[in-house]
Amino acid sequence: MAAALIWISLLVAVSAPIPITYHAHLQGHPDLPRWLRYTQRSPYQPGFLYGTATPEDRGHQIIEVTAYNRDSFNTTQQMLVLLIGDPEGPLLPYQAEFLVRSHDVEEVLPSIPASRFLTALGGLWEPAELQLVNITSALDRGGRVPLPIEGRKEGVYIKVGSASPFSTCLKMVVSPDSHARCAQGQPPLLSCYDTLAPHFRVDWCNVSLVDKSVPEPADEAPAPGDGILEHDPFFCPPTEATNRDFLTDALVTLLVPLLVALLLTLLLAYVMCCRREGRLKRDLATSDIQMVHHRTIRGNTEELRQMASSREVPRPLSTLPMFNVHTGERLPPQVDSAQVPLILDQH
Question: Which residues belong to the signal peptide in this entry (predicted)?
Fold first, then answer.
């Protein structure tokens, strides 16, 4: 049986634009079911719950939706009851999936853009009733977020089903010649007029056709064996493992690094302690005239330092605080000494 797309628009009726965000999850669970997705571009736009249920999802499911008002911080909650049963209507064995690069997922979920896409696609397909099977954002298929340039979209995959076989035009798009042209960066072969352009920019190199009218061959179940491999003359496993003594390996692993470290330590101690010249050897290697000059300079320096420390003379005026030459008066503390000359001269 065919599966139909389910989408629900989440919108609170207000008179003025108010930022509202939504949070939806399956009752009793923190997230949505695996077949249901949620998207909302901004708080000022409606949110969408969309997805295609599978036969394993039949039953009664309750979705809890909470709306948050970003201005007043008010919240409201609503329950969505979904009764998922067997799909009704004709079988849709022929399904085609298109990558539309000119739209985002929330732009094709409303009924008007979706019906416009089906009407435009009818010109490429045999006259028959087309039905949306699934809509998936390109980001969910590994696509990348586009650059923030006007006109750049994320892209959306649209799967359409029909009871009529594929047209010759669609078969030519997925032919090996078209794939070869796409691999070289050229547009694929399209024998008919592109009725989807210019409203929908379809990537014709990413079109896939699935024909479910032909039953797939059932995979043969592997027969259980006895669990014993067949005899291989090139593989001779050992019958038993020999005992090994790892004491020697452990001693070599530990003692060799310790011995090397000890030798390096002894070598460094010999260089630092036993190879020093010493003061006596250095003095003996220096000429007598140079030693006399050195001792004379040191002696004169020490004598000048002793004389400077023992003399009793007043300090130079330049080392005292600011003063007046004639009166000897010092400057008051509140005066900024940085703005006053070093010596005051009064006539």
Answer: 1-17
**In the predicted model, is pLDDT for residue 177 greater than 80?**
yes
Query: Within a 13 Å sphere around the CA of 39, how many CA atoms are in the beta-carbon half?
Result: 20
Per-position b or e across 37-66, b if 16+ CB within 10 A of its CB: bbbbeebeeebbbbbbbeeebeeebebebe
Fold for 5-84, please state it: Immunoglobulin-like (2.60.40)
Longest dimension (CA), the chain: 126
Instruction: Say whether pTM exceeds 0.85.
Output: no
Please state the domain extents for the chain. 5-84, 94-211
Length of the chain as a residue count: 347
Cα–Cα dist 316/189, whole Å? 104
* Edge-to-edge strand list for the sheet holding 47-52: 5-10, 47-52, 36-39
Q: Tokens 């038993």, residue?
A: 240
- What number is the average pLDDT over the span 7-21? 69
Q: What gap in Å lies between CA 63 and CA 8, rounded to an integer?
A: 11
Report pLDDT digits (tens) over 52-61: 888 888 888 9
Classified as helix, coil or strand, 284 is helix
User: Phi and psi for 129 in degrees, rounded to 5?
Assistant: -80, 120
Contact 179, 128 (CB under 8 A): no
Query: Cα separation of 153 and 163, whole Å?
Result: 31
Coil/strand/helix, residue 313: coil
What tokens does 269 get? Answer: 């101690």
CA-based nearest residue to 195, from 108, 128, 124: 124
Closest C-alpha among 96, 71, 66, 92 to residue 18: 71
100 in Cβ contact with 118 (< 8 Å): no
Helix then strand then coil, in percent of the chain rounded to 5, is 30, 25, 50
AA letter at 155: G
